[in-house]
Structure formats: C-alpha cells, structure tokens
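Inputs:
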Amino acid sequence: MSIRIGIFGYGNLGRGVEAAIKQNPDMSLVAVFTRRDPSALKINTPAVPVVHADNVEDYKDNIDVMVLCGGSATDLPVQTPALTRIFNCVDSFDNHSRIPQHFAAVDAIAQESGKVCLISCGWDPGMFSLNRLYASAVLPEGKDYTFWGKGVSQGHSDAIRRIEGVVDARQYTVPVEDAVNAVRNGEYPEFTARDKHTRECYVVVEEGADKARIENEIKTMPAYFADYNTTVHFISLEELKRDHSGIPHGGVVIRTGKTGGGNEHVIEYSLKLDSNPEFTSSVLVAFARAVYRLSEQGVCGCKTVFDIPPAYLSMYSPEELRKNML
Amino acid sequence: MSIRIGIFGYGNLGRGVEAAIKQNPDMSLVAVFTRRDPSALKINTPAVPVVHADNVEDYKDNIDVMVLCGGSATDLPVQTPALTRIFNCVDSFDNHSRIPQHFAAVDAIAQESGKVCLISCGWDPGMFSLNRLYASAVLPEGKDYTFWGKGVSQGHSDAIRRIEGVVDARQYTVPVEDAVNAVRNGEYPEFTARDKHTRECYVVVEEGADKARIENEIKTMPAYFADYNTTVHFISLEELKRDHSGIPHGGVVIRTGKTGGGNEHVIEYSLKLDSNPEFTSSVLVAFARAVYRLSEQGVCGCKTVFDIPPAYLSMYSPEELRKNML
C-alpha cells in the first residue's frame, strides 16, 4: 500500500527524486518517463521500467503522483498542464514572476480532471517561501530579506559558457556578509542588487584566448553580471573538475520586526546544501506525499506549499508527530 | 467584518496579545476576561471592557476566537476544555510530555461543541515544532537538535527565588557554542543535558545572607541545575533591575541529514527575541486567524500547528501570497 510515484524527466532532479524515494519507505517508484530513447537510458533502480513520454497515459491507473523534473523555461509550462489532465502532479516551476499565470493554467485543468497539482515546490520557491510567509504572519510589522548562496547558479554558468573562447565555467553567487549582518542587527537596510550578492566566476578558456576580452565580456554582461561586483578566475579544466564539480547551494531568509510593545525580533531560516538538485528532489518527494493525501480526500485543483498542512508531509502519524515533535 | 478576539487572562501574554491585535488590521479586541476584580484591572485599550471570567458565556455570540493566556501548569488543563465548550480557542500549552492528554481532552469537547481549538501554539511548542516537522519530512535520514537561549527561564528563576535568603533572581539558559557548531558541522553528536546548555544565574540576596550556602543550593538543585554547568553571580537589586529586566529568549532548531545520493545538508531555524511573551503572543494571534477561517469552513476539533495550511495564518489573500511571497 505504498504511494506509487512516477518521475517525468531524468536529469539531475529526476535522479534526485529516484534517490529520495528510497529514503521514504511508504513510497515506491513505478516508472521513469523520458523523451529520449528509453532503451538508451540507464537508471539507478534496475527493476523499474523506463518508458517513452509518449506512452505516459498507459500508466494512468498505476501512478498516484507524478513528479515533474523538467525545466521551468520551456518544459513545465507545457508538461505540467498536460500531465495534470491525467495524474496528480508536483512540479518545481521556479520562474517567480510567472507563477500566477502557471497557477491559473494548471488550476483550470486540475479542476476539470479532478487531480491535485502542487506547483513551485523546492527550496526557493518552496521552503524559503514558507518561511517568508510564516515570518510575515507572525511579525506583520517588519521586513524580510532573502540571500542566496554560496552556491552554483546554472543560468549564470551557462551565460559564461556562451562567450567565445570559453571552454567551461562555474559561477558562484555569494551573499555579502556585511549586508546579512546589517539585516540581522535590525538595521532594516535598503539594498541594490550589488549590495546583497557578489558573483565569483571560475572560467576555463581555449589556448591562446584573449582573457582580458573574456573577463570584460563577463563583467559587463547586462542582467547577469553588470549590476554586481564580479570576480573572474581563469583556471585549468583539471582544476574546474577537481574543485568545482559539485552543485552546492543554499541561502538564508531573515525577517526582523517589532511586536506591539516595541520589542525587536529576528527570525532566520538558512539552508546549506551540498547538492542543490538532491535537496530540491527531497522537498518534491515530501510534498508528493501531501498531494497523494489530499487527492485521497477528494481534493482537486492547483496548490502551492502555502496550502499544505505540514503534517501531510510526514510519514509519521498525527499522534506520533504530536508526541515526538510538537 | 474583522475577526473578533477575546483575551482570557491578562498577564504578560495577555498584554502581548492585546498589542499584537493592533498590528493586525483584520482583527479587533472584544473583551478581556480576568479572574481578578475587573474594576481593578487597567488594560491598554481603554474602550474595551474588562469582564469577570464568571461571565464569559455572555460573550458567546460576540467572540470569534478566544486566546487563552493562562499558565500551562494549572490554568490551561482546566480552562482550555471549559472554554472550548463555548468558543473557538487558541492556547499555548507548553508541557510537552502532557500534550497527547491535553489534545485528547480538548478534542472530545471540541467535537461535541463544534468548535475549533488549537493547542500548544507559540514558538516551542509552535514555530520550533513546525521546523522540526518540515526538516524531518524533507531529510528523513538525519537528526535534529533544539537549543534554547540565550534567554530567561521563568521556571528556573522562580526555583532560585524559593531559596531562603534570596530576594530576587534571573536565570539565563545559554546554548553551548561548541555543541551548536558540532551540530552545524554535521558531526551528529550525542549530547547530555550538560553538553548542550549552561545556566547563568543573577541573584540578589538579603543583607548578611550566606552566599556560599545559596550558591551551593542552586548548583545542586535536582532537575533544575544539578545536571548543568551553572554559574552564580550575586548582584544588587539595582543591577538586577537595570540589566536584567527584559524577558529575552530564542534558540535554534538544526537538522542535518543526507539525501539519497549521499550529500549532506543543514537546515537551521533560529529566533532572537527581545520579548518572549510578546513574540509568543504574536504567534497566537496569527494562529487565531487560522482558527477563525477553519471554523468558518465548518471544521471542528482540536488542532495543532501541524494541521494548519500556512496560508491561513496570513492577512493576505492566496493570490497576493503567490504573487509576492512564493
């Protein structure tokens, strides 16, 4: 009687979901769906079938929750609505500014299909969002701040790789310590982008490449780097592989505020993650449990982390939770 | 159309609730109930009536949620069930080991009366409990640790005051920094009580009192001090009033764990509170909003923070939350 999970898309996130299911004894993996040639895809759970995405509907009675592991730019805006016609779903849609549109599109379909789909799950959006909400509800007169890092930004790393002469690159987003401390001290600072984060780039270039030109192209790149203090380190491919092959990330949400009698308070939530995709996957899997439970209760529609009673995430019973965690 | 709140009990917590209501424009204070002589009680909201506890039932149609501000030792075990017969309620019952019994007693009555009662709200139990639950659901293979302080423990301060020759006292619980850092470093340490916290006592004694005897009585007091490294400072009443009149508290919940691929992660939630009762009150008021909303939906029964969809705590609409906080 375990919760039957499907994985749609098998990149870093899909592999993370596969690994996370093994840590949750009330769940089992039914199938991995891919748009590639299934016979060419080796997964880490040999007994589980790899199925072409075109045949996903064959599994409509065998999967309780589909965990979508595609990208937010082009995959999820299409896949989440399409799969919500057939399955309860969880996705990690992280394009913050487009969440209202995504919600509306998915909700319309979920209401029709009678399924539950939880969107924008992970750590930001996700756990960080929850902490922004809880902190603002508890301290309505206050201000919250989110800092990201130190961690690898895939988007910024990709932007560097597109520069002529660059072989490979890794970009770290780093919070400015003085800025974090000013927030913690209750100074309620106003920040520009530059004040909050710096960008550290580790770049491998072709032999004979013009490093001065590449460094300048990085530092002046609009949207990605121009508004930040950016440092560029040229390193060898060996160094990149040896020292920068992980995908760590993390950050902190801080809210400072005054209660009615004038006293100051600081609420802080921080994450230090050795693997961004594995942690995100673990969050997706916990919320998949909640989606299953909501669906069993006859609920349907699009949901976010804000709508989920925390107890629904846990494999423990309400009695156990009250006894051991409250 | 604001949410009509009653306050039952007017000590530090009751005054904190009164102050918090003023920060929440969708709420209004209807009455303060006291077991003392109402005419002798001055509250900080002059237009609001102070009513004797015996007459609380007169308000059964005028109060949406009653916030109970009595103590956990003797008040709440009696008051919460009694008032749940008449009102939706929130309490801050914090005797962790007796929560299951308190829940059962309150739930039986709430099911009968058709009311919602949320018990054990505040920061521990409360916000810390939520963070233990979220973190354990996301990192099922891991271990969590809760450290309290630096902050004033009322119970320990009272225990010192009962010693002969003591005029007044303030006891601070202080987390051991090396212990916190060992947890953060992912060392999964096993701790005794002594390893995690020290106890700092500031004590005012009568003229001519035997300080050596008093210090010894404190340091050897079972349950309260004997199992901890305890420091005793004798100070003057003036110093106590000048330097130790606040009621700060706080602490941190840390969970470290491995995801399925073997990567390590650290989740940390910390509070730094200038006023323990004011912060607790602010949490109670946010959850009172959730209790009101659940009751409006026809829900009844005993609830805890684990059962509440986070969005129910916020004065903002689901649309606003998705747009601005997700």
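The mean pLDDT of chain A is 97. Flag for discussion at group meeting.
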